[in-house]
Specification:
Elements: H1 5-15, H2 21-40, H3 45-52, H4 55-73, H5 77-88, H6 92-132, H7 139-182
Helix pairs in contact: 1-2, 1-4, 4-5, 4-7, 5-7, 6-7
Length: 190
Protein backbone atom coordinates (compact mmCIF):
# COMPACT_ATOMS: atom_id res chain seq x y z
CA UNK A 1 0.00 0.00 0.00
CA UNK A 2 1.44 3.34 -0.99
CA UNK A 3 1.07 6.32 1.29
CA UNK A 4 1.14 10.02 0.79
CA UNK A 5 3.03 12.41 3.07
CA UNK A 6 0.18 12.95 5.53
CA UNK A 7 -0.60 9.24 5.89
CA UNK A 8 3.08 8.41 6.36
CA UNK A 9 3.68 11.09 9.01
CA UNK A 10 0.40 10.36 10.84
CA UNK A 11 1.21 6.65 11.06
CA UNK A 12 4.79 7.34 12.18
CA UNK A 13 3.51 9.79 14.80
CA UNK A 14 1.06 7.24 16.20
CA UNK A 15 3.76 4.55 16.36
CA UNK A 16 6.11 6.84 18.31
CA UNK A 17 3.74 7.43 21.24
CA UNK A 18 6.38 6.15 23.70
CA UNK A 19 8.61 9.15 23.00
CA UNK A 20 8.11 12.63 24.41
CA UNK A 21 6.12 15.07 22.29
CA UNK A 22 9.15 17.33 21.77
CA UNK A 23 11.33 14.49 20.47
CA UNK A 24 8.49 13.18 18.33
CA UNK A 25 8.05 16.61 16.71
CA UNK A 26 11.76 16.74 15.92
CA UNK A 27 11.68 13.28 14.33
CA UNK A 28 8.58 14.08 12.31
CA UNK A 29 10.18 17.35 11.17
CA UNK A 30 13.17 15.37 9.83
CA UNK A 31 10.87 13.10 7.82
CA UNK A 32 8.82 16.06 6.66
CA UNK A 33 12.09 17.55 5.34
CA UNK A 34 12.68 14.35 3.36
CA UNK A 35 9.34 14.88 1.66
CA UNK A 36 10.06 18.58 1.04
CA UNK A 37 13.45 17.87 -0.60
CA UNK A 38 12.05 14.93 -2.60
CA UNK A 39 9.10 16.93 -3.91
CA UNK A 40 11.53 19.74 -4.79
CA UNK A 41 13.52 17.18 -6.82
CA UNK A 42 10.37 16.19 -8.70
CA UNK A 43 9.48 12.96 -6.87
CA UNK A 44 5.94 12.07 -5.84
CA UNK A 45 4.92 11.75 -2.19
CA UNK A 46 4.21 8.05 -2.72
CA UNK A 47 7.68 7.42 -4.17
CA UNK A 48 9.33 9.26 -1.29
CA UNK A 49 7.27 7.33 1.28
CA UNK A 50 8.22 4.03 -0.35
CA UNK A 51 11.92 4.96 -0.44
CA UNK A 52 11.92 5.87 3.26
CA UNK A 53 10.59 2.47 4.31
CA UNK A 54 7.56 1.59 6.36
CA UNK A 55 6.62 3.77 9.34
CA UNK A 56 6.47 0.58 11.43
CA UNK A 57 10.10 -0.36 10.72
CA UNK A 58 11.26 3.23 11.15
CA UNK A 59 9.47 3.48 14.50
CA UNK A 60 11.02 0.20 15.68
CA UNK A 61 14.49 1.50 14.90
CA UNK A 62 13.83 4.88 16.51
CA UNK A 63 12.29 3.34 19.64
CA UNK A 64 15.17 0.88 19.92
CA UNK A 65 17.73 3.68 19.83
CA UNK A 66 15.63 5.76 22.22
CA UNK A 67 15.50 2.93 24.77
CA UNK A 68 19.19 2.11 24.27
CA UNK A 69 20.17 5.73 24.89
CA UNK A 70 17.96 5.81 27.97
CA UNK A 71 19.51 2.56 29.26
CA UNK A 72 22.98 3.92 28.58
CA UNK A 73 22.23 7.06 30.61
CA UNK A 74 20.66 5.11 33.47
CA UNK A 75 21.39 1.37 33.53
CA UNK A 76 18.44 0.35 35.66
CA UNK A 77 16.92 -3.09 35.17
CA UNK A 78 13.75 -1.56 33.69
CA UNK A 79 15.64 0.58 31.17
CA UNK A 80 17.86 -2.31 30.08
CA UNK A 81 14.88 -4.66 29.69
CA UNK A 82 12.98 -2.07 27.61
CA UNK A 83 16.05 -1.73 25.40
CA UNK A 84 16.28 -5.52 25.03
CA UNK A 85 12.62 -5.83 24.05
CA UNK A 86 12.97 -2.96 21.59
CA UNK A 87 15.99 -4.70 20.03
CA UNK A 88 13.98 -7.92 19.73
CA UNK A 89 11.42 -5.95 17.74
CA UNK A 90 13.96 -5.40 14.97
CA UNK A 91 13.74 -9.01 13.90
CA UNK A 92 14.12 -12.70 14.62
CA UNK A 93 17.89 -12.42 14.18
CA UNK A 94 18.04 -10.25 17.27
CA UNK A 95 15.95 -12.67 19.27
CA UNK A 96 18.49 -15.42 18.63
CA UNK A 97 21.69 -13.35 18.82
CA UNK A 98 20.70 -11.18 21.79
CA UNK A 99 18.66 -13.58 23.92
CA UNK A 100 21.33 -16.29 24.20
CA UNK A 101 24.09 -14.10 25.63
CA UNK A 102 21.60 -12.24 27.86
CA UNK A 103 20.27 -15.42 29.42
CA UNK A 104 23.72 -16.97 29.86
CA UNK A 105 25.19 -13.89 31.51
CA UNK A 106 22.06 -13.21 33.59
CA UNK A 107 21.93 -16.77 34.96
CA UNK A 108 25.63 -16.77 35.83
CA UNK A 109 25.27 -13.40 37.56
CA UNK A 110 22.16 -14.58 39.41
CA UNK A 111 23.96 -17.74 40.53
CA UNK A 112 26.88 -15.73 41.93
CA UNK A 113 24.46 -13.38 43.73
CA UNK A 114 22.60 -16.35 45.26
CA UNK A 115 25.84 -18.05 46.38
CA UNK A 116 27.13 -14.78 47.87
CA UNK A 117 23.92 -14.17 49.80
CA UNK A 118 23.86 -17.83 50.89
CA UNK A 119 27.39 -17.46 52.23
CA UNK A 120 26.40 -14.29 54.10
CA UNK A 121 23.52 -15.97 55.93
CA UNK A 122 25.42 -19.23 56.62
CA UNK A 123 26.27 -18.37 60.28
CA UNK A 124 22.60 -17.69 60.92
CA UNK A 125 21.70 -21.03 59.35
CA UNK A 126 24.22 -22.84 61.58
CA UNK A 127 22.72 -21.18 64.67
CA UNK A 128 19.15 -22.01 63.59
CA UNK A 129 20.19 -25.60 62.93
CA UNK A 130 21.68 -25.91 66.41
CA UNK A 131 18.42 -24.62 67.93
CA UNK A 132 16.33 -27.28 66.20
CA UNK A 133 18.85 -30.06 66.67
CA UNK A 134 20.15 -29.46 70.18
CA UNK A 135 23.56 -30.82 70.96
CA UNK A 136 24.77 -30.53 67.35
CA UNK A 137 26.46 -27.15 67.63
CA UNK A 138 30.12 -27.29 66.73
CA UNK A 139 32.48 -24.37 66.83
CA UNK A 140 34.26 -25.53 63.70
CA UNK A 141 31.07 -25.35 61.63
CA UNK A 142 30.26 -21.94 63.05
CA UNK A 143 33.74 -20.54 62.37
CA UNK A 144 33.71 -21.92 58.81
CA UNK A 145 30.30 -20.31 58.27
CA UNK A 146 31.65 -16.99 59.58
CA UNK A 147 34.54 -17.24 57.12
CA UNK A 148 32.07 -18.04 54.34
CA UNK A 149 30.04 -15.04 55.41
CA UNK A 150 33.07 -12.81 54.87
CA UNK A 151 33.61 -14.36 51.44
CA UNK A 152 29.91 -13.81 50.70
CA UNK A 153 30.14 -10.14 51.62
CA UNK A 154 33.11 -9.72 49.29
CA UNK A 155 31.25 -11.61 46.54
CA UNK A 156 28.14 -9.45 46.79
CA UNK A 157 30.17 -6.24 46.81
CA UNK A 158 32.04 -7.46 43.73
CA UNK A 159 28.80 -8.54 42.06
CA UNK A 160 27.25 -5.14 42.68
CA UNK A 161 29.97 -3.51 40.61
CA UNK A 162 30.10 -6.39 38.13
CA UNK A 163 26.35 -6.16 37.57
CA UNK A 164 26.61 -2.44 36.82
CA UNK A 165 29.47 -3.09 34.39
CA UNK A 166 27.55 -5.95 32.76
CA UNK A 167 24.50 -3.74 32.26
CA UNK A 168 26.58 -1.01 30.62
CA UNK A 169 28.46 -3.54 28.51
CA UNK A 170 25.24 -5.14 27.44
CA UNK A 171 23.79 -1.80 26.35
CA UNK A 172 26.93 -1.27 24.22
CA UNK A 173 26.46 -4.77 22.80
CA UNK A 174 22.83 -3.98 21.93
CA UNK A 175 23.88 -0.76 20.18
CA UNK A 176 26.47 -2.69 18.18
CA UNK A 177 23.85 -5.30 17.33
CA UNK A 178 21.35 -2.67 16.17
CA UNK A 179 24.03 -1.09 13.96
CA UNK A 180 24.85 -4.51 12.56
CA UNK A 181 21.21 -5.27 11.80
CA UNK A 182 20.73 -1.89 10.14
CA UNK A 183 23.97 -2.30 8.17
CA UNK A 184 25.64 0.84 9.48
CA UNK A 185 29.38 0.88 8.92
CA UNK A 186 31.78 2.29 11.49
CA UNK A 187 32.41 5.35 9.30
CA UNK A 188 28.74 6.32 9.18
CA UNK A 189 27.17 8.36 11.93
CA UNK A 190 24.29 6.51 13.58
Amino acid sequence: MTMNKKQFLDQLNSLLKGISLEERKEILKDYEDHFTFGIGAGESEETIATSLGTPRQISKEILTMYHLDKAEDSSTLGNVMRAVWAAFGLGFFNLVVVLGPILAIAFVALAVWVVGIGFIVSPLLVLISSLFYTGTFEWFEFLVSVALSGVGILMTIGMYFATQALAKGFVRYLKFNVKLVKGVTKNEKY
